[in-house]
Amino acid sequence: MMATIEITKESFFIAAILGFFVRFVIQKIPSFWLHSLLNLPGTIAHETSHAIVSIFTFGKMTRFSIIPRRAGDKWVFGSIECANLNNFNAFPIAMAPLILLATPYFLGEIYAGHQLNVYFAAALWSITGIVCQASVPSAQDFKVAFTYWLGTFAWIGLIAFYLFPEQVQGIFLKII
């Protein structure tokens, strides 16, 4: 008989937090190639999120890479290039990895209350941690987003209005 465990929603959020701790441990590994190998699943999730949002916002992705390469004195684990960045799509494409933070919520909704094989549960928690640690936009992502500052502020305004409609309306009424 296989060992099972009952899954709770909270377990996925704990896995996400542990994923961020694992990120710091991985960064301390002296071997670049081992570091790259351990980061590969997260790199795939991170770059794929950019690619998917690029497709939906007409960014015209021209290059997708998850192969680590040297860029000056730093290493780049993955990248995408788009031929049609503009004020409309630069911010969503650059900040796309933040979507990965929804992983614990959705997995919790799907699996909460179910009895799962211990190994399957461990795999789900591992995937959650890996995906969440990859959700942090890179310095290059922020650079791309803020290159198109008008679009960035428009997107931030729209997001703020959606999340906090009364507060944003109050601010605008005070200004006017």
Automatic annotation (TrEMBL):
The chain crosses the membrane at residues 12-33, 88-107, 119-139, 145-164. It comes from the Bacteria. Keywords: Membrane, Transmembrane, Transmembrane helix. This is Uncharacterized protein.
